[in-house]
Amino acid sequence: MPRKPDTATQSPERISDAEHAIMEALWDQKGDASAQDIFDTVGEARDWSLATVKTLLSRLVQKQAVSTRPDGRRFLYSPLMARDDYVGGESRRLVDKLFGGKAASLVAHLAESEALTMDDLTEIEQILKELKQ
Amino acid sequence: MPRKPDTATQSPERISDAEHAIMEALWDQKGDASAQDIFDTVGEARDWSLATVKTLLSRLVQKQAVSTRPDGRRFLYSPLMARDDYVGGESRRLVDKLFGGKAASLVAHLAESEALTMDDLTEIEQILKELKQ
DNA sequence: GCTTCATGTTTACATCCGTAGTCGATACAG
DNA sequence: CTGTATCGACTACGGATGTAAACATGAAGC
Q1: Of all helices (H) and strands (E), which one includes residue B131?
Q2: pLDDT exceeds 90 at position B122
Q3: Hey, which bits of chain A come out as E strands?
Q4: For the ranges A102-111, B54-63, B64-73, which has the lowest average pLDDT?
Q5: A16 beta carbon to strand C: under 7 Å
Q6: CA-CA distance, B39 to B32, in Å (whole number)?
Q7: Cβ of residue A51 lies below 7 Å from strand D
Q8: Among partner residues A88, A99, A104, which is closest to B124 by beta-carbon distance?
C-alpha cells in the first residue's frame, strides 16, 4: 500500500477526542501547566485518573502537539499548536468531508436545519457585514 | 442551546470515516445497491478491495445504519439514515466540541479565517435573507 | 540515611478501525 | 452432474484510542 507522504507539511498528526480535551485544558491554562494542573482541570469533568491524563499528555508530546519544559522534578506542558489552527483544521475537514469543500453549504445546512436561532442569524449577518467591506 | 436529548431513538452508533464513504455511495446510488455496485462506485477511488467493501457494509448493517433486502443469492443494501440527519449530526458534534454549541461562532470562525470566499459571503447573505422573513 | 510522595516512563488491555484473506454455500456454464 | 465464479460470513491482524496500573527515580521530610 503506497501511502501518500501525508501532506508534505511534516506531521500535523491527528489529535484524538480525549487528547483534544487535554489540549483545551492547556489552551485555557494560558501558560505552562503540570500534569497535575491538567488533571485538576479535566480530571473531575471527564472522570479520568491522573494516570490517564499522563498518558494522553505523553501521546500529545509524541505527536508534537505539546512541548515540555523541565521544571525541577517535573515537566511543564504547553501547547505547540494554536487553538485557532486546530479549530480551523477540524472545521475544514468537516466541510471537505460533508460539503464538498464549500463552507457556504455548511452554513446553508445549519440554517435550514434550524440549528441557527434567530439571534444567530442576526449575529451572522452582522459578522458578514463587517467582513464584507 | 436547549438541544433535545439526542433523538430518543436510542443508539445512532458512530459511523467511521471509511464507513462514511460507503454511506455516500449508497446515498448517491438512489435505491438499493449490491456490494458489487458499491465496490464499483468507491472501490477505484479509495483503492479498496471488494472484501473491504463487504466488511464495511456488514459493519454498517450491524450499526443499523444500513438495511438489507435479499435479492436472489445476494443482498441489496440501502441506507437507513438520511444523509441530512447524518450531516446534521456531524455538524452539531463539531459545533458542540469546538464552539461551545454556538453555530454562529463557527460561521464567525470560517469568515475570519478566510475559509469563506467573497462569493460564499454573498451566497450566505442570500440564504440568510430568505430564511429571515 | 530511610520512608514516603510526586512524577515521568513502561506496560497493559479491551475496543475500534482500516484493510483484507479464507470458507462454506449456491447459482450457473457445460 | 461437475467445475467454477459469486456471495455473504467468519477470521485476521496491525495500528489507534480510551483507560489505567506498575515501576523507577529523585525530592523532601524527619
Answers
A1: helix B118-132
A2: no
A3: 66-71, 74-79
A4: A102-111
A5: no
A6: 13
A7: yes
A8: A104
How confident is the prediction for chain B on average, in pLDDT? 86
Please, which pLDDT band fits residue A79 given cuts at 50, 70 and 90? Answer: very high
Which residue of chain A has the CA closest to B104? A120
Q: Which residue's C-alpha cell is 453549504? A: A105
Q: Which residues of B105-117 are buried (b: 16+ CB within 10 A; e: fewer)?
A: bbbbbbbebebbe
Averaged pLDDT score across all residues of chain A = 86
Answer whether A30's CB lies under 8 Å from A16's CB. no
Residue bearing the bigger pLDDT, B26 or B117: B26
> How many pairs of residues across A and B have Cβ atoms under 8 Å apart?
111
Asked whether the beta carbons of residue A124 and residue B124 sit closer than 8 angstroms, the reply is yes
For residues B78 and B69, give the distance between their C-alpha atoms in angstroms, rounded to a whole number.
8
Query: Taking a C-beta distance cutoff of 8 angstroms, is the pair B69, B26 a contact?
Result: no
Which nucleotides of strand D lie under 7 Å from a protein CB? 6-12, 16-22, 26-28
Asked if residue A51 keeps its beta carbon closer than 7 A to nucleic acid strand C, the reply is: yes
Give the residue-averaged pLDDT of B48-68.
95
CA to C1' distance (Å), from B48 to C19: 8
- Whether nucleic acid strand C comes within 7 Å of the CB of A78, the answer is no
Note whether A76 and A64 are within 8 A (CB). Answer: no
In whole angstroms, D17 C1' to A52 CA is: 12
Secondary structure of B57-68 in the HEC alphabet? HHHHHHCCCEEE
Q: Is A74 left (phi over 0), alpha (psi -120 to 50) or beta?
A: beta
